[in-house]
Amino acid sequence: MTGTETENDNDEMARRKAVQNEYLNSQLAAAAYEKSSIILPDNPVIL
Q: Which domain of life is it from (predicted)?
């Protein structure tokens, strides 16, 4: 294996990780949005 192949593998892994993070962030954002739109009772007790 040459040095450039290793670099290419690292680039590929970094790209995949970035895509995965983007996906997770979008899932978190969607979940947070859903959670924030829950209607609270008149006098909610915040624990």
A: Bacteria
Taking the CA atoms of residue 12, residue 15, residue 16 and residue 21 in that order, the dihedral angle to the nearest 10 degrees is 160
Q: What is the pLDDT of residue 34?
A: 75
| CA distance linking residue 1 with residue 15, whole number of Å | 21
Global pTM value: 0.52
Sign of the CA dihedral with 12 first, then 14, 20, and 25 last: negative
Where the chain has pLDDT below 50, the residues are none
